[in-house]
Amino acid sequence: MKKKIFNILTILAGILFVADGIDILTSEYEQPTFMIFIAWLDIIFFGFGTIVIIYHTFGPRRALPVSWNQHYFNIHSYFYRREIEWKHITGFSPYTWNGIDWILVHVDNVDDVMANTGNWFKRMGLKITYKQYGTLYAIQAEHLTMTPEQFCNYLEQELAKHQPTVSAYM
Fold it and tell me: Of 70, 107, 131, 167, which is most buried by a Cβ count within 10 Å?
């Protein structure tokens, strides 16, 4: 709810900036070229930003970007797709930061993942996530139809199904 109120206030501010740009362009007084340039920049930049925020605030809800199968827990994002083997997952926990709910995926092979991430940009993103959340993977949980705690409990049950079992005959 806090995020929606912030988005609505941002939309109002964007509308005011666009209105200011239109006011400058339609003014009866002669405006310098620089002011006309600023007015067009106002309209384009804040107009586009306002449309994007309106879409994200009131548009269709995205599904939570996770899926899983027998061997992997998958995290999908705008920028990457991660496959995490179930055997490396130690648990899930809810986390709230700045009024936004997150699901943290805890793994036991942090050093291996860091070492095997070839792209320095992705590795830097993992380091920042690890420093901020204490784990490599954090999933934003704003589109859940249940509480983050309930979803973590559900994921823990899935984890128990997919964890490799130790044979008593070893």
Answer: 107
Residue 72 or residue 103, greater confidence: 103
Contact 149, 94 (CB under 8 A): yes
Higher pLDDT, 37 or 117: 37
Maximum alpha-carbon separation in the chain: 90
Average the pLDDT over 88-107 and give the result: 88
Which pair of tokens denotes residue 57?
Answer: 């605030």
Per-residue 3-state assignment (H helix, E strand, C coil) for the chain: CHHHHHHHHHHHHHHHHHHHHHHHHCCCCCCCHHHHHHHHHHHHHHHHHHHHHHHHHHCCCCCCCEEECCCEEEEECCCCEEEEEHHHEEEEEEEEECCEEEEEEEECCHHHHHHHCCCHHHHHHHHHHHHHHCCCEEEECCCCCCCHHHHHHHHHHHHHHHCCCCCCCC
Q: Residue 23: name the closest of 38, 9, 8, 11 by CA.
A: 38
CB of 72 closer than 8 Å to CB of 84 = yes
CA-CA distance, 21 to 15, in Å (whole number)? 10
Q: Residue 26 pLDDT > 80, yes or no? A: yes
